Amino acid sequence: MLPPIFPIFVRNVIYPIYRGLRGDDLLSVLEELERSQWLSPTELEEIQWQRLEGLLRQAVTHVPYYRDLFREAGVMVEDIQGPADLRAVPLLTKEIIRQNSSRLVSRDPLKKGEASSTGGSTGEPLYFYCDRASGPVRRANTLRAIRWTGADIGDRQIFFWGFHLDMSLKERLVDTVKSYFNNIAYLSTFDMSEPSMRRYASRLRRYRPGLVVGYPSALALFCEFCKKQRIPVYHPRAVITSGERTFQHQREIIEEVFRASAFDRYGTREFANIAHECEEHSGLHLFNDLFFVEIIDEKGDQVPHGGVGEMVVTDLSNFYMPFIRYRTGDLAVSSGRVCSCGRGLPLIERIEGRSFDTIITPRGKSVGGFFWTWLSRAVPGIERFQIEQRERSGIIFRIVPGPEWKEEYRDQLSERIRDNCGQDFRVTFAIVEDIPLTPSGKSRFIVSNIEERLVIKSKIHKARITGENPGGVDSIMVDMKLLELAGIAPYEKVLIVDNTNGSRIETVMLPGDREGGRVVAGGATVNHIHTGDEISIMAFTWSSDTRELFKNILVDEHNRFVRYLKEVAGETI
Amino acid sequence: MKRFLLKSMILKATVKQADLRYVGSITIDEDLMEKANLSENEHVLVVDRANGQRLTTYVIRGERGSGMIGMNGAAAHLIGEGDRVDIMAFIWSTEAVHPLFLEVNENNRFVRYVDEGRF
Questions:
Q1: Which residue of A has its CA nearest to B64?
Q2: Is A401 or A369 the better-scoring residue by pLDDT?
Q3: Distance from A535 to chain B by nearest Cα, in Å?
């Protein structure tokens, strides 16, 4: 491995040459951004509003999706005079982008885009375009924020990060070369084993980074380990925590072990950095010279100061594929405070976590991050928590207790959960010391491990075949009343097993006369199953509900309903 | 496009019981169910290495640690006690999967996960 380059060389030689070769105006954009951050909130809002209007006009003129959307919603750009009017523009979601990706691209021949995608760590990746002109703006914005931490262009940076698993070999190679000349190195949070963390610590000592960037959970884990094992840790100028919510205890251990201030950063792959903490450490400044950020509740209303809401972002510099009112799925606490640093960029209190992860109740209701975040504060003493769902019927509620935690709070929590999720919803509490990280080294507060499985949902047990109809369609015809009791639809595919001779065949169900108890084998099925045979009829479905769904009925020798069955291994009937 | 893909396979399990009178389908030791990521009532394909029979049915829970693999009801016509069977479960997915292949001993105790190439 090549030795790292001196920061001063990167800053004063490589960087200006590289920018010159690319022909972009990154350094002048940076200058501009560093000036505009000191404008008053009102001046900044004015600039923001001008840019927003420009974006809306461009979108309606050149982007088919927005042209149709505004027309259908009956909205004119001229009608949008302030933030309240913007609510008339429907929200943009990942799903809409997937379905309309080509219609979301500007037809303006002067605009150029670059393809990009999200990593897909939380599901399917999203493919989208960035405006080529916004590239230098985003990079300049990152540099502006890095300077808030006391670091500078060219300072070595080490990232504790989930590796770019989605990159091709060529992309990785390009990335490696770029990273080298930009003085950036990566340590993979996919592997936080003890030998690896020892390796990371010695890498830090050799690399001597000015800045350490990483997921707070991974950094805290690393710091705790080094502290416990008395492994010396290099002290960077500053630490940037990003990618998930930072908890106070994580910040404390990170600052203690790195002996540096921690700065929270919020960004996404779609937009790069949206908010960043400054040297006053009193919340995160929203970059509202580049974005229009709304924090809204489930009804779409702006939340009051101090309230939790989802961040909805409009990117003011992507004209190629405009993101207007895009749901990030991230929850933030809004703020009405003004930062003492003197910058006019408004504050948010903090990032709470993801809202897209939801819990599904047995009746199909989706209960999102809002509720669980609220719940975790409904009683005192919950330091951290995680909700995991493995089956539709309930959840596991993991709690890392604080000093104020009391056992009787369990009942209060259960009651509130059942009020929202149904009285039969099972809640299993686990009081734990720690909450494990995901394989990528991140922490998540809602984990849905529900899987859809192919499961049996209907069974008619011990039916008798009363007749054969070889000339009819290939089918089994059964008394409609039994079908209803077992929850089988007419023409549903079924599996028939013949208890008399062992045959197993697949065919379709035909509805027969109600009452009378007729079960007739039709078509080619008569080669396998015969009048007088005892059979069971089964139907399957895809579901995450593996138990409650199953309707298993026992019938007598005249095919009359006896009762619902619950099967236990080794039992006879 | 969603595909029907293999999720897990219990290899060369030994049938410990085959009884026409018993309710249900295939009984599987709960420990093996967990290791193979199988749920109660889940659909499985069972193939008999001894006689070539192949059948689909669903899982019922067997006592944990008992090593039970039991063929119940009509399935006992086709698969007998002492036969070696492979048990497969599938998922419906757009993404590539890494199925679990479970090696078990003659008492149906889990030994390890194996690569399909190594078996």
A1: A569
A2: A401
A3: 8
Strands (E), B17-83: 17-19, 26-29, 43-48, 54-62, 69-72
Question: A7-354: which CATH topology?
Answer: Rossmann fold (3.40.50)
CB A24 within 8 A of CB A135: yes
Q: How many residues does chain B have?
A: 119
Q: Positive or negative, the Cα torsion across A487, A491, A497, A500? A: positive
* SS3 (DSSP) at A498: strand
Whether the predicted pLDDT of A116 surpasses 60: yes
* pLDDT over threshold 70, residue B13: yes
Question: Comparing C-alpha atoms, which of A460, A179, A134 is closest to residue A270?
Answer: A134
CATH code for the domain in which residue B31 is found: 2.40.40.20
SS (H, E, C) A397-420: EEEEECCCCCCCHHHHHHHHHHHH
Question: pLDDT grade, residue B106 (50/70/90)?
Answer: very high
Would you call B41 and A546 a contact, using CB atoms and an 8 Å cutoff? yes
**Averaged pLDDT, A39-46:** 94
- ipTM score here? 0.87
Tell whether A573 is within 8 A of chain B (Cβ): yes
Q: Looking at residue B35, what is its pLDDT?
A: 87
Q: What pLDDT is stored for residue A356 in this prediction?
A: 58
Strands A272-277 and B43-48: unpaired
Choose, out of B3, B43, B91, the residue to mutate when testing the contact with A (most A CBs < 10 Å): B43
Pick the CATH number of A453-564 from 3.40.630.30, 2.40.40.20, 3.30.43.10, 3.40.50.10490: 2.40.40.20
B91 is a domain residue:
yes
Distance separating alpha carbons of residues A176 and A156, to the nearest angstrom: 14
B-chain CB neighbours of A570 within 8 Å are 17, 22, 27, 70
Tokens of A415: 């009651």
Is residue B76 a part of any domain in this protein?
A: yes
Domains in chain B: how many in total?
A: 1
What range defines the domain where residue B59 resides? 3-110
* DSSP for A504-551, written as a single string: EEEEEEEEE-SSS--EEEEGGGGGT--TT-EEEEEEEEEES--STT-E
| pLDDT higher than threshold 60 for residue A166 | no
The domain defined by A359-448 folds into GMP Synthetase; Chain A, domain 3 (3.30.300)
Amino acid at A507: T
Nearest to B43 among A456, A536, A571 (CB): A456
Does any CB of chain A come closer than 8 Å to the CB of residue B116?
no
- Phi and psi angles of residue A109, each rounded to the nearest 5 degrees, phi first: -65, -15
A384/A405 Cα distance (integer angstroms): 11
